[in-house]
User: Which sequence fits this backbone?
C-alpha cells in the first residue's frame, strides 16, 4: 500500500511538471497513472482533476499522441462514471454519447461496449428507461462481436446485467429476472466472483419486486458479503442499500436501519453523493415506521440542507415529502401543508415520476385533513393513473387507501370498501405486510365502532394479528388510537 501511494505521488508530480511545461504531451502517461491511482482509492475529486486535464491535452494535441482515440474513449468513460456518482446525469449522458459517436464506424472494443453501457445506465438513472433498454441491448450485441475470450464473456455478462436493471426499472421484472439468472450462471461458469456478486444482487432485487422477499434475501446477502470481503466499497454501498430494502419488505426494521446506516457511512467515505442522499431518506423512512419521528426528520433535514448547498431537486423534493409525513405523524398538519407546497414546485420543475407521485399522495392526505374530499380523490386518482401507466409500484396500495378515505369522506362507504378490497388484494399479492396492516386499519376507520361494531372489530383484530408477526411501532400506535379514540 505504501509503495502504491509513493507511485501515485510520483505520477502526480510528473504529470504536474510536464503539464506545466512546453511539452504537455509528456504529461499524458503520468496523468493516466495518477487518475487510475485516484480511482483505485475512490479519491474522486483528484481523479476528476487528472481526467479533465488529460481530456484537455487530448483535445489540443491528439494528433501527436499514439493511441489517442482509445485513450480519449477511456477518459470519457471514467469521467462519465464520476459524473454519475456525483449526480450529474445529464453531463454523464453528454460525455458518453459524444464518445460513442466518436467510436462509430470502428471495430468495437471493450471500451466501446463500456461506453454504450455507461450511457444506458445514465439514461436509466434519469428515468428514460426506454432509451436505457435500447442502449443495453446494443451493448449486449456489441459484446458478442468482440474477439472470443474471457474478457469478451465478461463484457457480455456485464451488459446483460445492465439490461436486467433497465428492464426492471421499466417494470419488465419477469424478463429482468431471466436475464439476471442467465448472467449468474455465466459468471459461475467463468468463476468470476465480482460478476457473480453483481448478478446475485440483481436477481435478488428482481425476486423482491416479484414479492418473493424471503427468496430475495439469500442472493442479496451473498452478494453483499462478497463485496465486503473484496473491499469493493462502490458496490458495497449498493448491496447494503438493497439489503436494507429486503429487510424492510420482511419487516425486519432494526436490521434494515443498520444496513442503511452502514451504506450511509461507506457512501460518505467514498464521496458517493447520490447514495448519501438516498440512504438518508431510506434511514429516515425506517425511523418513521419505528415511530422515531424526531430522528427521522433529522435525516430528511440533512438532505434538504445538502441540496440547498448543491442542487438536487428530486432528492430535495422527496425529503420534503417525507418530512411532511413525519409532521403528520406528529399531528402537525399545517406544517405538512407548507412543505407540500415546496415539494409540488420541485415536482413540477423536475417532472420526476417518483417525486410527482409522492407529492400527489401527500396532497391527497392534506386535502382529506382539510375535508376537501373532492380534491383528495382527484389527487389520489391522478397518482393511481401515473402509477398504473408506469406498470405499478410500491405506491399503488397507498394511493388506493387515500382514494378510499376520500370516498368515505363523501359518504360513499360501499365504494370505499371496494377500493380497499382492491388495495388488500394488491398488498397480499406483493406480500407487503405493512401495506396490508394499514389497509385493515383504514377499513376499521371507515367503519366506526359506534355504527359498524362487527366490521370495525374484525379489521382491528386482523391488523393486530399481523402486527404480532410483523411488529411496526407506528402502526401499533395508529391501531391503539383507532381502538381507543377518546384516550
Assistant:
Amino acid at each position: 500500500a505504501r509503495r502504491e501511494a509513493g507511485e501515485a505521488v510520483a505520477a502526480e508530480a510528473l504529470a504536474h511538471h510536464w503539464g506545466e511545461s512546453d511539452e504537455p504531451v509528456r504529461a499524458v502517461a503520468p496523468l493516466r497513472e495518477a487518475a487510475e491511482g485516484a480511482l483505485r482509492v475512490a479519491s474522486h475529486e483528484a481523479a476528476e482533476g487528472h481526467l479533465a486535464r488529460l481530456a484537455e491535452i487530448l483535445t489540443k494535441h491528439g494528433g501527436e499522441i499514439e493511441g489517442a482515440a482509445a485513450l480519449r474513449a477511456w477518459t470519457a468513460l471514467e469521467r462519465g462514471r464520476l459524473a454519475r456518482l456525483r449526480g450529474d446525469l445529464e453531463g454523464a449522458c453528454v460525455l458518453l454519447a459524444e464518445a460513442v459517436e466518436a467510436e462509430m464506424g470502428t471495430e468495437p472494443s471493450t471500451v466501446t461496449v463500456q461506453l454504450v453501457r455507461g450511457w444506458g445506465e445514465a439514461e436509466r438513472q434519469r428515468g428514460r428507461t426506454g432509451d436505457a433498454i435500447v442502449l443495453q441491448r446494443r451493448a449486449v450485441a456489441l459484446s458478442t462481436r468482440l474477439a472470443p475470450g474471457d474478457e469478451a464473456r465478461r463484457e457480455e455478462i456485464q451488459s446483460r446485467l445492465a439490461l436486467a436493471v433497465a428492464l426492471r426499472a421499466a417494470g419488465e421484472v419477469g424478463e429482468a429476472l431471466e436475464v439476471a439468472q442467465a448472467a449468474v450462471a455465466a459468471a459461475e461458469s467463468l468463476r468470476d466472483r465480482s460478476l457473480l456478486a453483481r448478478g446475485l444482487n440483481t436477481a435478488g432485487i428482481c425476486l423482491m419486486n416479484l414479492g418473493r422477499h424471503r427468496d430475495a434475501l439469500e442472493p442479496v446477502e451473498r452478494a453483499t458479503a462478497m463485496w465486503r470481503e473484496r473491499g469493493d466499497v462502490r458496490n458495497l454501498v449498493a448491496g447494503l442499500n438493497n439489503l436494507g430494502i429486503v429487510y424492510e419488505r420482511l419487516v425486519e426494521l432494526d436490521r434494515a436501519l443498520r444496513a442503511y446506516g452502514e451504506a450511509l457511512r461507506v457512501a460518505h467515505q467514498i464521496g458517493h453523493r447520490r447514495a448519501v442522499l438516498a440512504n438518508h431518506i431510506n434511514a429516515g423512512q425506517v425511523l418513521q415506521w419505528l415511530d422515531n419521528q424526531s430522528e427521522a426528520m433529522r435525516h430528511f433535514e440533512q438532505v434538504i440542507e445538502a441540496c440547498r448547498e448543491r442542487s438536487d431537486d428530486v432528492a430535495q423534493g422527496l425529503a420534503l415529502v417525507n418530512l411532511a409525513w413525519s409532521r403528520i405523524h406528529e399531528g402537525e398538519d399545517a406544517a405538512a401543508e407548507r412543505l407540500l407546497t415546496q415539494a409540488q414546485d420541485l415536482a413540477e420543475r423536475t417532472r420526476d415520476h417518483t417525486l410527482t407521485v409522492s407529492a400527489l399522495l401527500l396532497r391527497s392526505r392534506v386535502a382529506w385533513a382539510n375535508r376537501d374530499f373532492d380534491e383528495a380523490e382527484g389527487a389520489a386518482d391522478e397518482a393511481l393513473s401515473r402509477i398504473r401507466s408506469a406498470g405499478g409500484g410500491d405506491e399503488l396500495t397507498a394511493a388506493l387507501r387515500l382514494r378510499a378515505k376520500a370516498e368515505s369522506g363523501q359518504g360513499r362507504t360501499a365504494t370505499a370498501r371496494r377500493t380497499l378490497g382492491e388495495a388488500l388484494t394488491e398488498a397480499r399479492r406483493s406480500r407487503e405486510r405493512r401495506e396490508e396492516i394499514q389497509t385493515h386499519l383504514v377499513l376499521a376507520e371507515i367503519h366506526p365502532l359506534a355504527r359498524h361494531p362487527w366490521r370495525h372489530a374484525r379489521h382491528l383484530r386482523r391488523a393486530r394479528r399481523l402486527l404480532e408477526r410483523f411488529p411496526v411501532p407506528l402502526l401499533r400506535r395508529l391501531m391503539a388510537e383507532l381502538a381507543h379514540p377518546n384516550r
